[in-house]
């Protein structure tokens, strides 16, 4: 949000994001890269995107963004131009990052004017072409919307059009080790077509109030900011940790 404003008049998301950036910069070793899976703004405005960039730019590692349903892809493309969002399509904000041991493919899953996600035929064709370029190389896809239901309104009712197009590709390319998403403001994991779909917690401290009955309108709890840390082990495994940003990070011995 713009300086001085709170998201939904409650959550100090700018302050929380600044705390998260500070925490990431203190990690040892530093992460190789930070992936921002959308909802970088609340209302899609240029002012909010510029504020987010101002808060993210102090990161000591490269970072990359893809749009969420609260974002405007044209605005993000302008504000986060260059290596942060190196869009390789005239219409959608998706791209490949080749700089790391794991190949990273950012996907634009947004559908303007709708809360749910979508992978249309054009996006599926683009992804298939990129996957064909390196079919054996370990790969992670990152996008905003989970393509599978998680038992919350944000996935089960918002929906995801074209999930069948994506699942066909995931089944064909077992080198896809993760699909990293946002949208539901909760950490959750599920197996899907031979890979793992994992959703990130809220960097802005807005944790979804979990209601598996799907009867209540979505609400959130104010929490500390959180993020996922993906660790490549020496034997080639990919381990995911959830990290909470604590104001008191004093360590106590067991």
Automatic annotation (TrEMBL):
<feature type="domain" description="Calcineurin-like phosphoesterase">
    <location>
        <begin position="17"/>
        <end position="185"/>
    </location>
</feature>
<dbReference type="InterPro" id="IPR026575">
    <property type="entry name" value="GpdQ/CpdA-like"/>
</dbReference>
<dbReference type="GO" id="GO:0046872">
    <property type="term" value="F:metal ion binding"/>
</dbReference>
<keyword id="KW-0408">Iron</keyword>
<keyword id="KW-0479">Metal-binding</keyword>
<dbReference type="InterPro" id="IPR050884">
    <property type="entry name" value="CNP_phosphodiesterase-III"/>
</dbReference>
<dbReference type="InterPro" id="IPR004843">
    <property type="entry name" value="Calcineurin-like_PHP"/>
</dbReference>
<dbReference type="Pfam" id="PF00149">
    <property type="entry name" value="Metallophos"/>
</dbReference>
<protein>
    <submittedName>
        <fullName>Phosphodiesterase</fullName>
    </submittedName>
</protein>
<dbReference type="InterPro" id="IPR029052">
    <property type="entry name" value="Metallo-depent_PP-like"/>
</dbReference>
<dbReference type="GO" id="GO:0004112">
    <property type="term" value="F:cyclic-nucleotide phosphodiesterase activity"/>
</dbReference>
<dbReference type="InterPro" id="IPR042281">
    <property type="entry name" value="GpdQ_beta-strand"/>
</dbReference>
<keyword id="KW-0378">Hydrolase</keyword>
<comment type="similarity">
    <text>Belongs to the cyclic nucleotide phosphodiesterase class-III family.</text>
</comment>
<dbReference type="InterPro" id="IPR042283">
    <property type="entry name" value="GpdQ_catalytic"/>
</dbReference>
């Amino acid at each position: 949000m713009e300086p001085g404003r709170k998201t939904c008049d409650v959550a100090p998301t700018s302050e929380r994001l600044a705390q998260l950036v500070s925490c990431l910069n203190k990690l040892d070793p530093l992460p190789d890269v930070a992936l921002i899976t959308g909802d970088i703004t609340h209302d899609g405005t240029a002012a909010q995107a510029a504020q987010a960039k101002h808060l993210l730019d102090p990161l000591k590692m490269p970072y990359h963004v893809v749009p969420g349903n609260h974002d405007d892809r044209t605005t993000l493309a302008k504000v986060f131009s260059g290596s942060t969002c190196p869009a390789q399509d005239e219409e959608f904000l998706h791209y490949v990052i080749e700089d790391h041991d794991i190949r990273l493919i950012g996907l634009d899953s947004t559908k303007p004017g709708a809360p749910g996600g979508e992978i249309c035929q054009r996006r599926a064709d683009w992804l298939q072409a990129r996957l064909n370029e390196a079919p054996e190389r370990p790969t992670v896809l990152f996008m905003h919307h989970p393509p599978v239901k998680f038992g919350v309104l944000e996935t089960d009712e918002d929906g995801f059009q074209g999930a069948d197009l994506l699942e066909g590709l995931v089944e064909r390319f077992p080198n896809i080790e993760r699909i990293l998403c946002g949208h539901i403001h909760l950490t959750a994991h599920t197996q899907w077509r031979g890979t793992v779909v994992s959703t990130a917690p809220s960097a802005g401290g807005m944790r979804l109030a979990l209601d598996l009955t799907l009867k209540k309108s979505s609400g959130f709890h104010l929490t500390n900011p959180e993020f996922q840390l993906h660790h490549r082990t020496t034997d080639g495994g990919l381990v995911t940790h959830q990290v909470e940003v604590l104001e008191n990070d004093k360590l106590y011995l067991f």
